[in-house]
Amino acid sequence: MTNPKPNGKVPAMNTYTMPRTLVNQIMRHAQQSPEAEVCGLVGGRDGQACTVYPIDNVADEPDHLFTMAAPAQIAAMRQMREQDEALYAIYHSHPHAPAEPSLRDVEEAAYPDALYLIISLNTKGVLELRAYQLHDQRVSEAELIVEET
Fold first, then answer.
1. CB 3.0-4.6 Å disulfide test: which of 67, 88, 96, 144 passes with 131?
2. Distance (Å, whole) CA 25 – CA 128
3. Residues 15, 22: Cα–Cα separation, whole Å
4. The overall pTM is greater than 0.85
């Protein structure tokens, strides 16, 4: 789901890496709530993801929407600062949809420098995790390399 440039060419895909341990934490979080979207933040340092911060979803319709609990989101951002981290990624799950940004995901994307991770539980046997850059109502899929530690 990449928006082509005006000349018809698809923009080059940016590449990001994450340790398998962090990816596993995010996937487990999604599996713990198969009927509701889960969400959270990933902190990073020196361009490397290093900490997962699960945040409660307080949306009125959590089966297809997510709204991060403001106090927990603020606390996670504070912890990142205290650990000399910056926001690396924002993640959420889609229990009944593909791992692609919804129109609402695109419209509400407020951190253009963050990577957006979407986990789909709408698969048989294996969860799907895909990465995106969301900026100015544009969607670009990013390559996510899972590093073994």
1. 144
2. 14
3. 17
4. yes
Which residues, at least 6 apart from 110, have a Cβ–Cβ distance to it below 8 Å? none
Which of 4-13, 32-41, 65-74 shows the lowest mean pLDDT across its residues? Answer: 4-13
- Residue 51 tokens read as 């900490």
Domain tally for the chain? 1
What CATH number is given to the structural domain containing 63?
A: 3.40.140.10
Question: Residue 53 phi/psi, 5° resolution?
Answer: -120, 90
Evaluate if residue 71 carries a pLDDT over 60.
Answer: yes
| Six token digits for residue 28 | 């487990």
What local confidence, expressed as pLDDT, does residue 122 receive? 85
Q: Per residue, what are the HEC states of 53-83?
A: EEECECCCCCCCCCCECHHHHHHHHHHHHHC
86-94 vs 39-45, strand pairing mode: antiparallel
Secondary element (H or E) of residue 108 = helix 103-108
Q: How far apart are CA 149 and CA 147, in angstroms?
A: 6
**Burial class of residue 97, CB neighbours in 10 A (0-12, 13-18, 19+):** middle
26, part of any domain: yes
Amino acid identity of 76?
Answer: A
